[in-house]
Write a structure and sequence with these properties.
The chain is α+β, with helices and mostly antiparallel strands. It contains 4 helices and 20 strands.
């Protein structure tokens, strides 16, 4: 009897200890977020931040995610969680890989993304990704100008009268009478690169948190810049199939340092959103409406739905309809008000997704086409063993 009592006491002691640890972890998360709001005061960062320094980080990624207008902070796919909300990695159940390719602005800008998501072991889950946005083969005419002035004559030419009196010779501009030497045309590229390393933890059955370390590299011709940033995400599931979430991006500000000594600072931003996944009992259909908003502290009033001082809010909405867990139809409105649509084909070994950005405020640049392939490696291996 006494031995049994001791075993029960030890058992309940362990339960109580685990419960207290989880409460402590939860309080630490809340205190950290409160300190971010009260002490860091992101609105004041406008004084030192650059309004468009981190614009490429807001481009978005994931074909399903973009087709849903980016309203996915509460429910991205596992291979896009490192970008939208790392806390959602805790819902991942398989080792997956994804490759995405997008062409924006009539093919002028190419976006490529590769990601891995690892299934959770106990309370922890992990993911990683690489993003590149680039414009290649930009014409370089800096060395092609024959800067001879309006008379078209330079030193060594017969009849050269000396420097032009009007100052057009050697001024570095293409003036009337001057021309370009097309044999001296060159090219250069511009690219934005980011490596994401993410981890997530289950604090309580309904509460998950995650973080992403971002290592950034930018290049423009011969100029280079390096930076590092950090995101944190929260996922709260008050009931089955209901998700509420928030993601704090560039939490401590993201610094970009160029090789010429110039410094750019990306101000923090906040994403919030929710989603509800509903299966129809008598129909082979499921629907998931999603909503979200980006809260920016960079003063971009001309691209906002709501503006209060230097803080702007951009709304996002999306809807996904899934037939027999195989075919997914998607539509959404992104943070700039542009319509998005998409189609997904899901199997046990992976999925193939296509998305179409319909232009909206950028209609003059044409539509944006996106395609992605996701593979579930364990299921793929089992399928290959069956058929080979």
């Amino acid at each position: 009897m006494q031995l049994q009592f001791r075993e029960h006491s030890a058992h309940y002691g362990r339960i109580n200890c685990n419960f207290m640890l989880r409460r402590i972890e939860f309080k630490i998360v809340l205190c950290g977020l409160l300190a971010w709001v009260l002490l860091l005061n992101p609105v004041n960062l406008l004084a030192i931040g650059d309004k468009y320094a981190g614009e490429f980080l807001k481009f978005g990624l994931g074909v399903r995610e973009m087709a849903l207008g980016g309203a996915v902070v509460s429910d991205p796919t596992a291979v896009a969680a490192h970008y939208w909300n790392p806390a959602t990695l805790t819902d991942n159940t398989c080792f997956s890989g994804n490759f995405m390719h997008t062409e924006e602005f009539a093919g002028a800008v190419a976006l490529d993304h590769f990601a891995l998501a690892l299934p959770g072991k106990g309370e922890y889950s992990f993911g990683a990704g690489y993003l590149r946005i680039g414009v290649d083969d930009i014409a370089d005419t800096r060395n092609a100008l024959l800067d001879l002035g309006t008379d078209g004559l330079g030193p060594g030419d017969e009849g050269y009268p000396g420097p032009d009196a009007d100052g057009t010779e050697g001024n570095g501009r293409l003036d009337p009478g001057e021309r370009l030497d097309y044999g001296k045309f060159g090219s250069f590229g511009a690219s934005e690169n980011a490596v994401f390393l993410s981890g997530a933890k289950i604090l309580q059955p309904k509460l998950k948190v995650g973080g992403t370390l971002k290592m950034l590299y930018r290049s423009l011709g011969d100029d280079k810049a390096y930076g590092i940033g950090f995101d944190i995400g929260i996922l709260y599931q008050p009931a089955p199939k209901i998700n509420l979430a928030a993601a704090f991006n560039d939490l401590t500000t993201t610094f970009m340092l160029w090789n010429d000594g110039e410094r750019e600072i990306v101000a923090p931003s906040l994403r919030i959103g929710g989603s509800v996944h509903h299966h129809f009992k008598k129909l082979p259909l499921a629907i998931e409406p999603l909503f979200g908003a980006d809260i920016l502290f960079e003063g971009k009033q001309n691209t906002s739905d709501i503006s209060i001082g230097g803080t702007v809010v951009r709304a996002r909405i999306g809807l996904e309809v899934i037939y027999k867990e195989c075919i997914a139809l998607r539509a959404g409105r992104d943070d700039l008000g542009n319509p998005q649509i998409g189609l997904g084909l899901n199997t046990s070994v992976g999925s193939l997704d296509y998305g179409l950005g319909l232009g909206g405020s950028y209609a003059e640049f044409g539509s944006s086409h996106r395609i992605a392939l996701t593979l579930h490696f364990a299921e793929l291996q089992r399928a290959l063993k069956r058929y080979l």
